[in-house]
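Person: Please work through this fold.
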Amino acid sequence: MRAAAIALAIFSAGVAFPLSSPGAQARTAPSEKLRIDKTRIDTALKAMIADGRAAGTSALIWQDGREVYFGTAGMADREAKRPMRRDTIAQIYSMTKPVTGVALMQLWEAGKFRLDDPLSKYLPEYADMRVYAGKDAAGQPRYVAAERPITVRDILRHTAGFVYGAGPTPAHDAYVAADPLALTIPLAEASKRLAGVPLLFQPGTQWEYSIAVDVQAALVEKLSGQRFADYVRTHIFEPLKMTDTAWRQPDAKLPRFAAMNVKKDGELVQQDAAAAQTLNFRDHALTPGGFGLASTLDDYQRFARMLLNEGELDGARILKLSTIKLMATDQLDPAIKERAWLPGKGAVGFGFDFAVRKSPPQTPEENRGAVGEFFWDGAASTLFWIDPANKLTAVFFVQTMPYDGTLHRDFRAAVYARDYEGSAGD
């Protein structure tokens, strides 16, 4: 049950993305330099506490190669009267996904696979997939053969057709019964369980946020010959000196965890200490690619800075610039019209494990941001983005569930100003 609840939380919340074309990034320069207003951001963070949307908030912004903002408001743990601090550890849920994508694309750079290879070439369980095709006259579910194989590209851009949690179709029922994200099983078993669940649609025809990033993690294990967590630690975290980011945190660090807060009847209710550490995977076999990391502002900002800095940070080369541009380019064919809730995120498309902003904000209500931006968020309302046009990275931490997109709207407005419409040439 706990694994199902975690999966549902992830499904319902990792919902925030803008689109970006690296080609546009190279051509576009801001009409005038974006200047960070510390007072405006401080005020926004405090307002989130005052109006009851968050118990504690923190943010860290780098621009032009230097830190330009750090601030906190409220409590990491209200019951213990422990304020949000720079070293507070937060559960980042789906902000795990871009880390997994970077790991897989390192193996692509090493020539371990091609993007349009059938997934079944490496994970044979995905051969001969079935697709849910509605119900017949007697009300029984119909299934048809997949018209083409799922490709590695599909699992990077959420077009494989996978289900992700409970839902209205027999395919969703099959997913719940299979329980592919059970915490007691390893990634290889999770992948095999998922492969037995019918797809929701023909591969490549729709965008649907999914368990595909956990399949990416299983593929990393298969191609590298290492346990997924070991691969990520040795190829990403250690080179970037991300010393506080992990699926499994040591006991000594648990007092630094921020408590989780769940909104019930309009009020934030703090979860007990055990619940706040539920996703500390020390005692579980599963190391998911789509969620589960806990991190600090400084650690995750190092990951973001690496992405902005053309794949390298402080002498550690993680990816090539060309690979980052590929990941941060909209990968959705114009023919893919069904995109679930993605259009609600504004003028965006989707790359490889990132949303990418393709146009300036189209309405006053849309999140502020610049063309070329790529980003993702997490179920507990955390957020980060990379803005090449303004040479800026931002990381925002909070522990509010369910996901509250108004926090992102207000934080972005404080960073950019509410009337920001992008850069010259957008």
Q: What stands out?
A: The first strand starts at residue 56 and ends at 63. The chain has two domains: 2-106+227-416, 121-216. The mean pLDDT is 90. Residues 121-216 form one domain.
